Amino acid sequence: MRRGGPAVVLYAHSSSGRYGADRQLWLIATRLDPGRYTPLVVLPTEGELAGDLRAGGVEVLVRPLAVLRRDSGLAGAAASALRDPVGLGALARRRRVSLVHSNTSVVLSGALAATIARVPHVWHVREIYARFARAWPLHRLLLGTASALPCVSAATAAQFRPRDPARVLHDGLALEPRRAPREAARAALGLTGDVPVVAVLGRISEWKGQDVLVRALAEPDLAERGAIGLIAGEAWPGAERRARRVLELARTLGVSDRLALVGFRDDLENVLGAADVIAVPSTAPDPLPGAAIEAAAAGCAVVASDHGGLPEILRDGETGRLVAPGDPLALAVAVAELLDDPAARRRLGTAAAGEVRARFSAERLLERIQALYDELRARA
User: Fold this and answer.
1) Percent of the chain beyond pLDDT 70?
2) Domain spans of the chain, in order of start
3) Pick among 3.40.50.2000, 3.80.10.10, 3.30.450.20, 3.40.50.300: CATH of 7-172+361-379
4) What is the mean pLDDT of the chain?
5) Of the residues 41, 157, 187, 378, which has the maximum number of CB atoms within 10 A of its CB?
6) What is the pLDDT of residue 70?
């Protein structure tokens, strides 16, 4: 165990944006107890996250990392790793790192670095691999070599075997979500008229359900009300075709005039304030979507898919609505019911805000993550 001052934790992360896992890394790294731990973050590229971390006093290094992505697969990640096979481990030894924390389970470089430096390895699991059943057994074996596998939800932890070092560690609120006044928020987003708005936040992807929202807009329940679908988020760089597919689907269904793609927005308060209902229509199990946590904490009425980690955030009929995944009609019906019942929207939003803020507080996450570090260092 390293003595004589705060221990250095090396964080390896897969991207440098401002989405869910990025925000969680920012929260942890900028709010560690400085008397106990000092963060050192390694990112594969410059970007918003790198700037935010540096502004918070965190040292950030940019260097090649092996990252498992859908388009590259294990072979592509291995090729990336070969460009810098021991560099991260040498860095960890040179900086006398006490622990390596890979902030997502798609980052492969941290495992090698921890092995070379002979320090514990925390491999944060923020993914559910249901769509990759063939590759999952091999990847699970690799993940099982970690000292600890904090999983963002019980649904995420359920992927592992009893002998794997998995434990549930829910994310925390990385920001103070609030709703801007409705009229001002809509003006900021270029929305005109007093029409119902249902919003989806997050990366545009094949499974986040933006297409389900578009199909729901074409259902009579929302078409008759003239509801507008608001999509706040962008596709991964290089995958812009996914956004084009959403637009093409809207044209095919005749709802282009009721669909607004506003890209990634820093002004979350305006997106939440402009929307009457927030939808989280993930078609594949979503581990623990930050969009649902933030919207619920802000007091929004949320309609979400009933699978993955979403039932761990919302209770159907009490703090939100849960519907069948991938079912545009079910989404349209649930949203329409809430659009017609402002009192129900307020009741669900108020209940959700109180419960979610307590269960997913930043303080709770920070206490548990540093307790995990303490445990692993004492064991080492």
Assistant:
1) 94
2) 7-172+361-379, 182-359
3) 3.40.50.2000
4) 94
5) 41
6) 57
